[in-house]
Amino acid sequence: GVSDGSVYALGDCATVEYPQLLARVGELFDAAHAEGAQAITRDELAEFVRIGAAKYPAAASHLQTLVRDFDHFDVDANGTIDRGEFGAMLRYVDSKHTALPALAQVAAQEGIYLGRALNTLAAGTGPALPFSYHHRGTLAYLGRAAAADFGDGHAYKGSNLAAKYLWRSTYWSQQVSLRTRFLLMTDWVKELLFGRDISRF
Predict the structure, then answer these.
(1) How confident is the model at residue 36 (pLDDT cuts 50, 70, 90)?
(2) What is the SS3 assignment for the chain?
(3) Which of 44, 120, 173, 185 lies 20 to 30 angstroms, CA to CA, from 51?
(4) pLDDT mean over 42-52
């Protein structure tokens, strides 16, 4: 809520209060359609989404679905979007806003963004662009089985060595230094030679 952008929050406990687009439905609708028109064409909606995705990066993926699902929101099937249908679109986008997941990839991207934003501020080259999170997928490993969701309908599940090393290679590549990569590989070699260190009662 700080208008000059002088306060940053990052990590698992940080969240972003997204602007509610529906509260600005009239202003956004008037900006989206041609002067004198009372409805938005498919091409005008695509242009609105392009501009809106840059202005509201957290809503970019949900805004882009509006173009794909144009016919679904065009309730009267007349090939254009009127004010009521546009309101339904914005209501859909607002309903999809959620807090970012408490994952290391979120904090890592936030850290990179913050470093760049502070460098931009120090150089005095203008305001930093809004933060935009890019989900790289989710990977879970349980014993000798793994499941991965890479987004866009791409998924993997397996219960073999390939699953184990898919998880390990991803985990290894995300380490921040050669030292931590070396320590991690040492632990894996110990586990390979001596088995897991499990307490017995």
Answers:
(1) confident
(2) CCCCCCCCCCCCCCCCCCCCHHHHHHHHHHHHCCCCCCCECHHHHHHHHHHHHHHCHHHHHHHHHHHHCHHHHCCCCCCCECHHHHHHHHHHHHHHCCCCCCCHHHHHHHHHHHHHHHHHHHHCCCCCCCCCCCCCCEEEEECCEEEEEEECCEEEEECCHHHHHHHHHHHHHCCCCHHHHHHHHHHHHHHHHHCCCCCCC
(3) 120
(4) 90
What average pLDDT is seen over the chain? 82
Split at pLDDT 50, 70, 90, the class of 72 is: very high
Amino acid 88: pLDDT: 92
Counting Cβ atoms within 10 Å, is residue 68 exposed (0-12), middle (13-18) or buried (19+)? exposed
